[in-house]
């Protein structure tokens, strides 16, 4: 419920306190950036935070948001990511992992054993927010057929609801 959303917003608001952000899917990237925009932030909030992307699709989605991953493990396994992160972590480092709570606990547990603080935030609420924006966008397309250009509609809506990676509107 709202507790889950509060936890997510709190983590995003304090993103600068994390050493690593671990993104596990392209949808997770979109949802994370949508929520970042909702918080009135953009990619600049990630300055100083290292980013790991699991897989090429996740790395590409991240790049489309103007952010390059610092670490992209060769395989999609949590064990390999934990292994790749291990030498770069110090005791007490904070790692943020926006992903499903039901996912295997291998990554957060391994990071905790290494002395890091691993915070898992569920992307469910992130996805709901992104979906709401997409629905608004679809409605905007339907009702603004008379607009001169598709870009005009997209820009108008981007400024109103912060849809997508690149354009964060005002709340």
3D structure, described in words:
The protein has 171 residues and is an alpha/beta fold. It has helices spanning 2-13, 26-38, 56-63, 78-85, 106-113, 124-143, 150-161; strands at residues 20-23, 50-53, 94-98, 117-121. The chain has a 4-stranded parallel sheet, with helices on both faces. Strand 3, helix 5 (106-113) and strand 4 form a beta-alpha-beta unit. Helix 2 runs parallel beside helix 3 (56-63) and helix 6 packs across helix 7 (150-161). The model is unreliable at 136-149, 153-164 and 166-171 (pLDDT under 50).
Summary of the model, kept short:
The protein has 171 residues and is of the alpha/beta class. It is 47% helix and 11% strand.
Name the features.
single chain; 171 residues; alpha/beta; four-stranded parallel β-sheet; 7 helices; 47% helix; 11% strand; disordered C terminus
Decide which structural class fits the backbone. alpha/beta
Which ranges are low-confidence, i.e. pLDDT below 50, for 5 or more consecutive residues?
136-149, 153-164, 166-171
How would you describe the shape?
Answer: globular
The rounded distance between the terminal residues' Cα atoms is 22 Å
Question: If you average the pLDDT, what whole number results?
Answer: 77
The radius of gyration is 17 Å
Strand order of the largest sheet: 2-1-3-4
Helix amount, in percent?
Answer: 40-55%
Strand content: 5-15%
**What is the number of helices?**
7
Note the run of SSEs as H and E.
Answer: HEHEHHEHEHH
Strand count, sense and closure of the main sheet?
Answer: 4 strands, parallel
Q: Count every beta strand, where a strand is a DSSP E run of 2 or more residues.
A: 4
- Multimeric status of the protein: single chain
